[in-house]
Amino acid sequence: MNPFYTNFFIPLFFFIILSVTPSYGYDSLDPYGNITVTWDFLADNGDTIDVKVSIYNFQLFRHVEQPGWRLGWSWTGDEVIWAMLGAEATEQGNCTKFRGQTKPHCCQKKPTIIDLMPGTPYNLQSANCCKGGVLTSLTQDITKYASTFQMNYKKASVTDDDIDPPPPPQQDGNFTMPQNFSLGIPGYSCGAPFQVPPTKITKDGKRWTQVLDTWNVTCMYSQFLASPAPKCCVSMSAFYYSTIVPCPTCSCNCQGLPGANCLNDDKSPPMLTLPQGNDSAQALVRCSRHMCPIRVHWHVKQSYKEYWRVKITITNLNFVKNYSQWNLVVLHPNFRSVNRVFSFNYKPLPIYGNLNDTGMFWGLEYYNDMLLTHGKNGNVQTEILLRKDKEEFSFKEGWTFPRKISFNGDECVMPSPDHYPILPNNNAPAHITTTTTSFILLFSVLMLSIFL
Length: 452
Hints:
The protein is mainly beta. It folds into two domains: 25-225, Immunoglobulin-like, CATH 2.60.40.290; 230-421, Immunoglobulin-like. 10% of the residues lie in helices and 33% in strands. Strands 1, 2, 4, 7, 11, 12 and 15 form a seven-stranded antiparallel β-sheet that branches. Strands 16-19-20-27-23 form a five-stranded mixed β-sheet, with no helix packed on it. A hairpin with a 3-residue loop joins strand 19 (294-303) and strand 20 (307-316). The longest helix has 22 residues, at 430-451. The radius of gyration is 29 Å and the shape is elongated. The N and C termini lie far apart (77 Å).
């Protein structure tokens, strides 16, 4: 090929690929997962509009834990929120131009909305609200994967002196959508609003009505945006191997580097003096070679005639955070033959047709669904019984160990494949062992007969 074309088209090809590649992350274990914000225009009252806003977590295993979502957007004009049900704005803003006794709920150009807590008075609630901003994954609890609130706001009157004016507003008829949506959750980025068919509503299942207009906003998760470093690692061991394969060194950070906050167990202060928070950036972990808040240990425990047993232990090495509604996703070729799981909930995730090699674990309610801090010796564990697949099963070359593990949707650092526990030499097939032993005995007899 002409060098000119090589030097010209190859850089052009990579430029095109990079330009069309989305900025959000893609998870091969949950290729269609996202959080969708649905904006339903319920009624046009002339100078105000009634709106229902719903947040749906369409992710198989990634959930939203405390402190919950914080939905934000930018108004395109001088809209103000008069009233809200099921949620509230974190700040009222400057409402001095409204001189009446009734003040708007929020006058900010860029409001931030948070969910109400459970137990909120009924007159402040809306349907499917008040979960403290927590959203479960689709797999764990489909009844708690959505949150909804309603509001009444004044129509836009676009001015010329707006601060940081947004791009031209998305508009259909009399309805104008706000812009620059955000969830306030690390790792998520939201796209622009787009119009979808109007939502249909029914009260009795017989007659359906539809809202005036519906817009969606899709928010995607990226582990790289959520944290500059991984949050978990995997160690391994087996009954046929004398040592433990530890988490790789500096899996999540290295001692002495910026942001590597750690304490030794013998120097741990009382729990009441530790900083409290849910932000992973504030993690205070036990000092270790890997410096990860979460360690997952996979132990090949026992082998039977038709089954083999694995023990999984999840250890919380973070002094300042409990993990509620945790989950573990494992990719393993023998998961099509899971016979029994002890102490955990389990559900297969057939993501790609009949290729059933992925499963999800999570805790039993009121038993081990909370992974406590390291200061309280937090760990949870289970054992799995798997049937031996005669066509595939093998203890050789690391087959019994997982290909990928994710904790709470974040992929864990795995040991290098050449460090996996291997079979010792005395685990060779029986006929080889017998033949070798016979040969050694015969050779010994011959040598003795020569010397004697």
